[in-house]
Amino acid sequence: MKTSSMIAAGALAAAAGIAGAQTQTITFDGLAHGEIINTQYQLPNGVTVAAYNANKKFDLAVAFDTTRTQTADPDLEDPWTGGNLPGTTVLGNVIIIQENDIGIGDGIADRPDDEGGRPAGNILFGFDAPITEFGFDIVDLEGNLPEFSYVDFYKDGSFVGVIGFDQFVSGGAHDNGAVYGNNSINRIAPIDLVDAFGVAPDRATFFVGGSMAFDNVTFTSVPAPATAGFLGFGGLLAARPRRA
What is the rounded CA–CA span in Å between residue 229 and residue 239? Predict the structure, then answer.
Protein backbone atom coordinates (compact mmCIF):
# COMPACT_ATOMS: atom_id res chain seq x y z
CA MET A 1 0.00 0.00 0.00
CA LYS A 2 1.28 3.47 -0.85
CA THR A 3 2.12 5.50 2.25
CA SER A 4 4.23 8.44 3.32
CA SER A 5 5.81 9.00 6.70
CA MET A 6 3.42 9.68 9.58
CA ILE A 7 5.38 12.64 10.85
CA ALA A 8 7.82 14.53 8.66
CA ALA A 9 10.34 15.61 11.28
CA GLY A 10 11.21 19.27 10.94
CA ALA A 11 14.64 20.82 11.09
CA LEU A 12 15.23 23.74 13.39
CA ALA A 13 13.39 26.69 11.89
CA ALA A 14 16.22 29.19 11.73
CA ALA A 15 14.24 31.18 9.19
CA ALA A 16 11.68 31.90 11.89
CA GLY A 17 14.32 33.84 13.76
CA ILE A 18 13.45 32.19 17.09
CA ALA A 19 15.97 29.97 18.84
CA GLY A 20 14.64 26.46 19.37
CA ALA A 21 11.69 26.86 16.99
CA GLN A 22 10.79 23.60 15.28
CA THR A 23 8.79 22.77 12.16
CA GLN A 24 6.64 19.63 12.01
CA THR A 25 4.26 18.16 9.45
CA ILE A 26 1.35 15.90 10.39
CA THR A 27 0.44 13.65 7.47
CA PHE A 28 -2.19 11.44 9.19
CA ASP A 29 -0.48 8.36 7.76
CA GLY A 30 -0.10 5.34 10.01
CA LEU A 31 -3.79 5.59 10.95
CA ALA A 32 -6.41 3.12 9.77
CA HIS A 33 -8.79 4.10 6.98
CA GLY A 34 -11.73 5.54 8.93
CA GLU A 35 -9.88 5.98 12.23
CA ILE A 36 -11.33 8.74 14.41
CA ILE A 37 -8.71 11.43 15.09
CA ASN A 38 -8.53 13.31 18.38
CA THR A 39 -5.52 12.88 20.69
CA GLN A 40 -3.19 10.74 18.53
CA TYR A 41 -0.89 13.72 17.92
CA GLN A 42 -1.06 15.29 21.36
CA LEU A 43 1.84 13.49 23.01
CA PRO A 44 4.31 13.29 20.10
CA ASN A 45 3.51 16.65 18.49
CA GLY A 46 1.68 18.80 21.03
CA VAL A 47 -1.42 18.96 18.81
CA THR A 48 -5.01 18.04 19.59
CA VAL A 49 -7.65 17.67 16.88
CA ALA A 50 -11.41 18.13 17.03
CA ALA A 51 -14.25 18.38 14.52
CA TYR A 52 -17.68 19.97 14.36
CA ASN A 53 -20.30 18.72 11.88
CA ALA A 54 -22.80 21.46 11.05
CA ASN A 55 -25.29 18.95 9.65
CA LYS A 56 -25.24 15.97 12.02
CA LYS A 57 -25.52 15.28 15.74
CA PHE A 58 -22.03 13.76 15.91
CA ASP A 59 -18.63 15.40 15.48
CA LEU A 60 -15.94 13.18 14.00
CA ALA A 61 -12.59 13.97 12.41
CA VAL A 62 -11.60 10.84 10.47
CA ALA A 63 -8.64 9.59 8.43
CA PHE A 64 -9.36 8.76 4.77
CA ASP A 65 -6.90 6.71 2.69
CA THR A 66 -6.66 8.39 -0.73
CA THR A 67 -4.73 5.45 -2.22
CA ARG A 68 -7.80 3.19 -2.02
CA THR A 69 -10.30 2.57 -4.78
CA GLN A 70 -14.07 2.02 -4.68
CA THR A 71 -14.43 4.17 -1.56
CA ALA A 72 -17.53 6.14 -0.56
CA ASP A 73 -16.02 9.22 -2.24
CA PRO A 74 -14.04 8.72 -5.50
CA ASP A 75 -13.19 12.44 -5.53
CA LEU A 76 -10.79 11.71 -2.64
CA GLU A 77 -8.97 8.94 -4.51
CA ASP A 78 -5.74 9.44 -6.44
CA PRO A 79 -4.63 10.06 -9.16
CA TRP A 80 -5.66 13.71 -9.12
CA THR A 81 -7.14 15.71 -11.98
CA GLY A 82 -6.24 19.28 -10.99
CA GLY A 83 -4.56 21.64 -8.57
CA ASN A 84 -1.05 23.01 -8.09
CA LEU A 85 0.53 19.58 -7.44
CA PRO A 86 1.16 16.78 -9.97
CA GLY A 87 -1.70 14.34 -10.48
CA THR A 88 0.61 11.49 -9.48
CA THR A 89 1.25 12.95 -6.00
CA VAL A 90 0.76 10.31 -3.29
CA LEU A 91 -0.88 11.81 -0.20
CA GLY A 92 -1.81 8.66 1.69
CA ASN A 93 -4.24 9.56 4.47
CA VAL A 94 -6.08 12.88 4.68
CA ILE A 95 -8.38 14.25 7.37
CA ILE A 96 -12.12 14.75 6.78
CA ILE A 97 -15.29 15.67 8.66
CA GLN A 98 -17.07 12.32 8.76
CA GLU A 99 -20.54 12.27 7.16
CA ASN A 100 -21.92 9.16 8.89
CA ASP A 101 -21.48 7.28 12.16
CA ILE A 102 -21.61 3.75 10.75
CA GLY A 103 -19.61 1.33 12.90
CA ILE A 104 -17.77 3.96 14.95
CA GLY A 105 -18.03 2.01 18.22
CA ASP A 106 -14.51 0.61 17.81
CA GLY A 107 -13.01 4.00 16.97
CA ILE A 108 -12.90 3.29 13.22
CA ALA A 109 -15.73 4.36 10.91
CA ASP A 110 -16.80 1.51 8.63
CA ARG A 111 -17.65 3.82 5.72
CA PRO A 112 -15.33 6.85 5.66
CA ASP A 113 -16.89 9.72 3.69
CA ASP A 114 -16.52 13.48 3.94
CA GLU A 115 -19.50 15.61 4.96
CA GLY A 116 -21.15 17.03 1.86
CA GLY A 117 -23.44 19.57 3.50
CA ARG A 118 -22.80 23.26 2.92
CA PRO A 119 -21.26 24.35 5.13
CA ALA A 120 -19.80 21.03 6.28
CA GLY A 121 -18.45 22.28 9.62
CA ASN A 122 -15.06 22.85 11.25
CA ILE A 123 -11.80 21.02 11.83
CA LEU A 124 -9.82 22.44 14.75
CA PHE A 125 -6.15 22.13 15.67
CA GLY A 126 -5.03 23.15 19.16
CA PHE A 127 -1.30 23.62 19.75
CA ASP A 128 0.47 23.25 23.10
CA ALA A 129 2.90 25.98 22.07
CA PRO A 130 2.32 29.09 19.93
CA ILE A 131 2.93 28.69 16.19
CA THR A 132 4.64 31.21 13.94
CA GLU A 133 3.94 29.49 10.58
CA PHE A 134 1.11 27.32 9.25
CA GLY A 135 0.64 25.48 5.95
CA PHE A 136 -1.47 22.60 4.61
CA ASP A 137 -2.84 20.74 1.59
CA ILE A 138 -6.43 21.24 0.39
CA VAL A 139 -8.03 18.23 -1.29
CA ASP A 140 -11.14 18.21 -3.51
CA LEU A 141 -12.24 21.80 -2.88
CA GLU A 142 -14.93 22.46 -5.49
CA GLY A 143 -14.48 25.56 -7.60
CA ASN A 144 -17.51 27.42 -6.23
CA LEU A 145 -16.60 26.98 -2.56
CA PRO A 146 -13.38 28.96 -1.89
CA GLU A 147 -15.25 32.06 -0.73
CA PHE A 148 -17.04 29.96 1.91
CA SER A 149 -13.91 28.22 3.20
CA TYR A 150 -11.24 29.80 5.37
CA VAL A 151 -9.01 29.30 8.38
CA ASP A 152 -9.33 31.31 11.60
CA PHE A 153 -6.53 31.73 14.14
CA TYR A 154 -6.85 32.24 17.88
CA LYS A 155 -4.53 33.06 20.78
CA ASP A 156 -5.56 32.13 24.34
CA GLY A 157 -9.15 31.80 23.15
CA SER A 158 -9.25 35.20 21.41
CA PHE A 159 -9.62 35.61 17.65
CA VAL A 160 -6.52 37.08 15.97
CA GLY A 161 -7.18 36.79 12.22
CA VAL A 162 -8.59 34.92 9.23
CA ILE A 163 -7.30 33.82 5.83
CA GLY A 164 -9.79 32.86 3.12
CA PHE A 165 -9.05 30.07 0.67
CA ASP A 166 -9.78 32.47 -2.19
CA GLN A 167 -6.51 34.20 -1.22
CA PHE A 168 -4.49 31.16 -2.37
CA VAL A 169 -5.32 31.44 -6.08
CA SER A 170 -3.10 33.28 -8.56
CA GLY A 171 -3.10 36.98 -7.74
CA GLY A 172 -4.46 36.41 -4.23
CA ALA A 173 -2.99 37.91 -1.09
CA HIS A 174 -1.34 34.55 -0.32
CA ASP A 175 -0.80 33.43 -3.93
CA ASN A 176 0.01 29.71 -4.16
CA GLY A 177 -1.34 29.27 -7.67
CA ALA A 178 -4.18 27.13 -6.30
CA VAL A 179 -6.62 25.73 -8.84
CA TYR A 180 -9.76 24.33 -7.24
CA GLY A 181 -12.18 21.70 -8.53
CA ASN A 182 -13.34 18.13 -8.05
CA ASN A 183 -10.50 15.70 -7.31
CA SER A 184 -7.98 18.55 -7.04
CA ILE A 185 -5.02 18.89 -4.68
CA ASN A 186 -3.40 22.18 -3.71
CA ARG A 187 -0.43 22.76 -1.44
CA ILE A 188 -0.45 25.95 0.61
CA ALA A 189 3.05 26.98 1.65
CA PRO A 190 3.52 27.87 5.34
CA ILE A 191 2.17 31.34 6.09
CA ASP A 192 4.12 33.66 8.39
CA LEU A 193 1.45 34.24 11.04
CA VAL A 194 3.42 36.75 13.07
CA ASP A 195 3.86 38.86 9.97
CA ALA A 196 0.17 38.50 9.10
CA PHE A 197 -1.36 39.05 12.55
CA GLY A 198 1.39 40.37 14.80
CA VAL A 199 1.05 37.41 17.16
CA ALA A 200 1.80 33.67 17.28
CA PRO A 201 -1.57 31.86 17.60
CA ASP A 202 -2.17 28.59 19.44
CA ARG A 203 -5.26 27.39 17.58
CA ALA A 204 -6.26 27.07 13.92
CA THR A 205 -9.85 26.40 12.85
CA PHE A 206 -10.72 25.34 9.32
CA PHE A 207 -14.21 26.47 8.27
CA VAL A 208 -15.14 23.86 5.69
CA GLY A 209 -17.57 25.18 3.09
CA GLY A 210 -18.45 21.76 1.69
CA SER A 211 -17.01 18.42 0.68
CA MET A 212 -13.19 18.50 1.02
CA ALA A 213 -10.21 17.16 2.97
CA PHE A 214 -6.85 18.33 4.33
CA ASP A 215 -3.36 16.88 4.62
CA ASN A 216 0.25 17.74 5.46
CA VAL A 217 -0.60 20.20 8.22
CA THR A 218 2.72 21.99 8.72
CA PHE A 219 3.49 24.30 11.61
CA THR A 220 6.43 25.97 13.30
CA SER A 221 6.11 26.06 17.08
CA VAL A 222 8.13 28.14 19.52
CA PRO A 223 9.21 27.08 23.02
CA ALA A 224 6.79 28.46 25.59
CA PRO A 225 4.82 27.29 28.61
CA ALA A 226 1.86 25.14 27.58
CA THR A 227 -0.92 27.37 26.29
CA ALA A 228 -4.67 27.06 26.47
CA GLY A 229 -4.87 26.59 22.70
CA PHE A 230 -7.25 23.69 22.94
CA LEU A 231 -9.20 25.08 25.88
CA GLY A 232 -12.45 26.65 24.84
CA PHE A 233 -13.04 24.26 21.93
CA GLY A 234 -16.13 22.94 23.67
CA GLY A 235 -17.54 26.40 24.19
CA LEU A 236 -16.72 27.38 20.63
CA LEU A 237 -18.49 24.36 19.20
CA ALA A 238 -21.46 24.65 21.51
CA ALA A 239 -22.00 28.23 20.41
CA ARG A 240 -22.65 27.16 16.82
CA PRO A 241 -26.13 25.79 16.14
CA ARG A 242 -26.49 22.72 13.97
CA ARG A 243 -28.77 22.53 11.03
CA ALA A 244 -32.16 21.00 11.77
Answer: 17
Q: Which residues, listed in sequence order, are joined to residue 98 by a DSSP beta bridge?
A: 114
The answer to whether 190 and 133 are in contact (CB under 8 A) is yes
- Amino acid 170 reads S
CB of 62 closer than 8 Å to CB of 44: no
Chain-centroid distance of CA 177 in Å reads: 19
Q: What is the pTM of this model?
A: 0.87
Candidates 185, 25, 168; CA nearest to 90 is: 185
Residues 118-165 have pLDDT tens digits of 999 999 999 999 999 999 999 999 887 887 999 999 999 999 999 999
Q: Which tens digit of pLDDT belongs to each residue from 110-126? A: 999 999 999 999 999 99
AA letter at 123: I
Strands in 156-212 per DSSP E: 158-164, 184-192, 203-208
Q: DSSP assignment, residue 147?
A: G
